[in-house]
Amino acid sequence: MLYKNLAKFYEEVSSTTKRLEKIKILSKFLKEISELDKEVLYLLLGDIYPEYDERRIGISSQLAIKSIELSVGIEKEQVVKEWKSIGDLGKVAEKLKENKRQSTLQSHTLTTEKVLNNLRKLPELEGKGTIGKKISLITELLTSASPLEAKYLIRTLIGDLIIGLKESTIRESMAVAFFPEEKKKESAEKIQQAIDKSNDISLVFEIAKKGKINALEKISLEVGKPIKAMLAQKIKTISEGFKALGVPCAVEYKYDGFRLIIHKKGKEIKLFTRRLENVTNQFPEVVDYLKRYVKGDSFILDSEAVGYNKKTGEYQPFQAISQRIRRKYNIEKIQKEMPVEINVFDVLYFNGKSMLDEPFKKRTEMIRKIVKNQKYKIVSSKQIITGDEKNAEDFYKKALKDNQEGVMMKSLDAKYKPGSRVGFMLKIKPEERDMDLVITGAEYGTGKRSGWMSSFIISCRDSKTKKYLEIGKVGTGIKEKATEKSDSNISFNELTKKLMPLIVKEKGKTVEIKPKIVVSVTYQEIQKSPNYNSGFALRFPRFTALRNDKSLSEISSLKEVEEDYENQKRNYKYG
What we know:
Layout: H1 3-14, H2 19-32, H3 40-44, H4 61-72, H5 76-86, H6 89-99, H7 112-121, H8 130-144, H9 147-157, H10 167-178, H11 184-198, H12 201-208, H13 213-217, E1 231-234, H14 238-245, E2 249-254, E3 258-265, E4 268-272, H15 284-293, E5 298-307, H16 318-321, H17 323-326, H18 331-337, E6 340-350, E7 353-354, H19 360-370, E8 378-380, E9 383-386, H20 389-401, E10 406-410, E11 421-428, E12 433-444, E13 453-461, E14 468-474, H21 492-499, E15 503-507, E16 510-513, E17 518-523, E18 525-528, E19 536-539, E20 542-546, H22 558-570
Parallel strand pairs: 1-11, 6-8
Antiparallel strand pairs: 2-9, 2-10, 3-4, 3-5, 5-6, 6-7, 10-11, 12-13, 12-16, 12-17, 13-14, 15-16, 17-20, 18-19
Helix pairs in contact: 1-2, 1-9, 2-10, 4-6, 4-8, 5-6, 6-9, 7-8, 10-11, 11-12
C-alpha cells in the first residue's frame, strides 16, 4: 500500500469527532486493505508490532527534531521555535516540508512496507553510532515524504497520531466492513474477544476479512503471550457493591502493589505487567516461588506484587517497590532491598484449558488448590465470601490496617474478560483528601492540548528553609475548553495565560514557574517518593479549584504533609 493513501486516511478520519462517521470512514478503508498489507492495522493505532510485542519505536522528541532539521535543511532553533508555537511536531514537519518546495521532487515513493521496514530497524539498533543510524533511517523516510506523509511519520515516531482512533472503533468498523447488518452486534463481540485473547489486531483483521464468525472463536489464549488484565469499576460503599453484585459475593483485599500476569509453560516462566511489559528478569525470586509453590504444568495467573519491610514485616506502598519494574541492573541487590510478595487472585488458563468462561467461584477454588501459601513469598489473596455488610466492612478496615488500598468485590458467577472494565468486579478505596499547593513548573502539551501548558508541577512549602518543594505532577480536573465543565472550572488555555508571565526558565517544552498561583488539589493518599524533592508524592492528584483568595503562606507546609502521611497510616476509619 502507498503510504500516501494511509496518510490521506489519517487526515480524513481525524477530521471528524463523531464516532459513527469514523466507523464509516474506517470500514470503507478496511475493505481496501489486502491480506498482504494486513500489518497496516498496526500503523492505524500508531504501532509497528502487535500490542503484545515488547519492541517499540522509542524515539524522543529531540531525535525527531534532529531528523526534521536534517531532512529539510534548517537550523534546530527554527524547528524548536515552530514546535513551541504549533505544539505538534507532526504539523511542524508538514509546515517545513511545505515551505521546502523541492520536497515535491522526491526520488522515491513511500510504501507502508518501506515505512514499517525502517521503523522496525530502530528498536534493534544498539551500541556505538546508534543515534546516527536512527537519524539516517528516519531522514531517509522524511526526505522521500510529502508534507502530509511527513506529518504522520513524525507523529508515529513519537507515539502520538492524534487521529482519535481507538481499538473499539476498529472493532466496530471490522464488524461493519466484513459482516452482514444482522450479524454486526454478534461479530463485534467476537472480534473484541479475539483481540482480547490475541492482542494482535492484524491477525484478527486477517480472519475477520473472511467473514466467518466461527473462525474468530478459534483464536484462543496462548501461554507466554501477554494478555490484558480485567479491570474493576469504582464504587463508594459496601452496600452499593452488594446491590450491584447480589449476595453472597467475594470480598478480597485490594493490594497496594502492581499487577503481575504470570505465565508458565513447562519449565519456562514469564511475568508481565498490566501494560504487557515482560519483567521476568527483574523478579528472579518470583520465578523461583512459582516453580516451588504452584502446581501445574502450564497456567496463566492474575496477581498483585506487594512490597514489604523485611525487618518489621509491614506491607509497603507501591511507591516503595516501583523502582523494581524499571531496574535492569543490580537485580540481586534491589531484590534484597525491596522484596515482594505475590498475591494470586485469579487463574485464566490451567493445564491446557482456558478458564476465562468458568465462574469466578470455580476459578478462586482452583487457586486455593494449586497455590501453596508461603507468607512473604507467594500466597492466594485474602478473601471472604459473604453477604453480610458488617463482615465486609470489618474486612475492609482490616485491609486498610494492613496498609492495603481497600477491597475488591466480585461476582461469584462472573467470567474473566481480559482488557475490560467490568461491572461484576468492583473496587472500594478511602475517600479523597485535599490540599492547597502552588504551581512551580509546567510542560506544554501535544495534540489537542498543543500550545497550552497541560501538566503542572505542584509544591508545598518548607517553613524552615522558605523553599517550595515538589510533591507531584497534575493534569486532570481541568477543562479542555472554557465552555466545558470540570472540577476546577478552569481551562488549560486560561491557566496557561495566567502562568505565562510567571515563567522563570525554559528548557524545550518544560518551564519553571515563579510560585504565585495557588490551587486546591484532591488526592487519594500521600506516599514516600524519591522522585520529588519533598520526599513525598500525591497519589492520583486532581485539580479542584484556583485559590485566588489564598496567599503563599497559607499553602500546605512540608510539616503538614509529613503529619498527614503519618495520620493516614493510623486512620483506618471506613468511609
